[in-house]
Amino acid sequence: MGEWQLMNKAMLKKTAVASMAVLTLAGGATSAFADGKGKGNDHKDNDDRKSGYSQKKDKDEYNINVNFKDEEELKWALEYIVRLASKGVFTGYEDGTFKPNKVITRIEAITAAVRLMGLKEQAESAEEMATDLNFKDAAELKKKYPWAVGYVAVALEKDLFAETDTSIQAEKPATRLFAATLLIKALGLEAEAKAKVNTSLNFRDAKNIPAASVGYVALAVEKGLITGYNDNTFRPNQPVTRAELAALLDRTDEQMPDDDQDAQAISGKLKAAAADGKITIVKSDNSETTVALASNVFIFRNNVKASVSSLAAGDEIIVRTYGGSAVFIEVTKSAESTVADASYAGKLKADVSNKSITLVKADNSEIVIPLASNAYIFRNNVKVAASALVAGDEIVVQASGGQAVFIEVTKTAVQQPADKTYNGTLKATVSGDSLTLVKADKSEIAIPIDANAYIFRNNAKVAASALVAGDQITVSVANGKAVFVEVTKTFEQQPVEATYTGKLKAAVSNNSITVIKADNTEVAIPLSSNAYIFRNNVKVAASALVAGDELLVRTYQGKAVFVEVTKIYAPQVVTQTGKLNSVTLGSDGKIKTISITQEISGGTQALVLNVASNVAIIGDSAKLVAGATVELKVTDSAVTSIEVKA
User: Residue 186 pLDDT more than 70?
Assistant: First the structure.
């Protein structure tokens, strides 16, 4: 998947986007991108209604479904799919799924390209639908996909086919080479591609790319539409999945000339949080528009699906409506953060993107918290990058200055392995029939091992039990199981990271703290220069820590990077009253000890106490003589004040 993603796109298109809509015709018509065995394929009575297209342009003919049943499978492609659905370029299936991993056909890819060019209405016009195509398989197309005739006609007019193409091959899987070539042509860059025909491609399998196609591949790579794989291959003949084509189409859309497809979008600032199922948008001319929210409105915030409650006054938004109700809202710029400096707990709503996290709290309310650039994040007791956090992780977040500065995953979410190749470090020796891989971003994934898996260590085929925790491995997954495992680098000792709890022995000195653990052993821990220290949920300097405070300390590479006071030290203060017997002085002239006589039932007792160096003397110090009545305040066994009573 990664080789298809450009997760850090230089330009994140912030044009109007609509719902992740499955635009299917009223009456249950099959989507234009439906299964090849759908109504439009193996039935004799395949009229336009059944094929998923109609010549009617009445918007009321459309139903909007904004929640795919298989949404969990398309997380990485969600951003792309939403933007394409907004223009009706890419749709889902009649059963409410998107099927992101399904291989896409040539006719589906051609249809999407024509729609991306803004030519959907033309392609569905009576004139184009009546075109007498000259392809060898034109009759087959008209029989199986009557709705597609107009799309093929327009594609032909716009030079999306090669001059040598004699057949449409509608049901043939669209390959990476086919898709790259198609989209370069859709951008109108055929002449530029032909000028690059003699480019030397650096891919290891460049010889598998036809000479006449070299320029198209070179330009597609240059434009950022497509990339190679980690092993420096292009794999021109590899079929494209629906999710992968969505990524390609979205990147192409970024470079399409501006058009009026977004003219009906409403953009502006949210006047207030949603109320009574409505929102009010203040537009750039200061006029206001109130829009009702559809019951299934899809909200896109920080590039993840969000709830209505996440919308905040001042958010800059783009709204798409159908039938007078908002079906899609995208927050293009969040209102100024109002996150209080406190500790938050809940579930991570989605994988982290756009330098913020969305937390679903116990009451199901949501809060979006920006990430500090130097935030400390721990998952499975290991310091990780924000990208290692997984939707569904249960986390505790410490906010300071309106940003998350510390995140700890208290319970990890379960990740399901996709059919791809993973690289990382083996977390533990294999026991049973699965392994746990720690990826480069420190996220973890458990992968079942196929019974017939090939496993190699030191170039020898071995059993899974021969793998060692810490081995760096490559894992190929098929049908959800590891079928090939290779140790690329044997175990190496990793930096020690640890968590300590206990009481602070003394105030911080020499930039170090000493913690007394529950078993009364002590550990001295140096403080990192940029350690985050919290007391009363407020970020403080190390000097604010008090001996006796109960602490939670996180270390990384031997230094404390996070310190939280879990229980503030409360000193024990008692009052002792009696007659002064005597005091002893230190070399500095200050009182070191004080002795008093107290009356008790049946007699008297002498009490000798240590005196704090900063003791306060209240009253006339000249009367502090033997026999004087004094009241002593004793804090943690040391006298902190002496009051002369008489």
Answer: yes
Residue 316 in contact with residue 279, Cβ under 8 Å? no
Number of domains in the chain: 7
What are 466's two structure tokens? 């021969």
153: enclosing H helix or E strand: helix 149-157
**What percent helix, strand, coil does the chain show, rounded to 5?**
20, 35, 45
Top-confidence range, 4-18, 53-67, 359-373: 359-373
Phi-psi region of 402 (alpha: psi -120 to 50; beta: other; left: phi over 0): left
Report whether pLDDT(538) > 70: yes
Domain with residue 377: its CATH number is 2.40.50.320
Q: How far is CA 63 from each of CA 23, 27, 79, 159, 355, rounded to the nearest angstrom? A: 6, 9, 22, 33, 35
pLDDT (tens digit, 9 = 90+) per residue, 310-349?
A: 888 888 998 877 778 887 888 888 877 668 888 999 999 8
Q: Is residue 259 part of a domain?
A: no
Could you tell me whether strands 629-635 and 573-585 are parallel, antiparallel, or unpaired per DSSP bridges?
Answer: antiparallel
Residue 212 shares a structural domain with residue 187: yes
- For residues 252 and 186, the answer to whether their CB atoms sit within 8 Å is yes
* Owning domain of residue 392: 343-411
Q: What are phi and psi of 305, to 5 degrees?
A: -65, 135
* Beta bridge partner(s), residue 532: 562
CA separation for the pair 148, 108 (Å, rounded) = 9
Q: What is the pTM of this model?
A: 0.47
User: End-to-end distance of the chain based on CA atoms, in angstroms?
Assistant: 85
